[in-house]
Amino acid sequence: MATELERKTTAVGAIAENFGKEISPGLLKIWLRLLAGYTPEQVEIGAVRVIETYAYKTMPPYAVLREAIEEAAGAGPQAAELKAAAEWTCLQESVARCGRYAPPEHMHPTTAHVVGVMGGWQAVCAWETRYLDLKRREFVDLWTQADGKADVLALGAAGVQRAIAQTRGGFVRVGMALPGGLKALSETGKQGVLES
Question: Does 153 have pLDDT greater than 90?
Answer without folding.
Answer: no
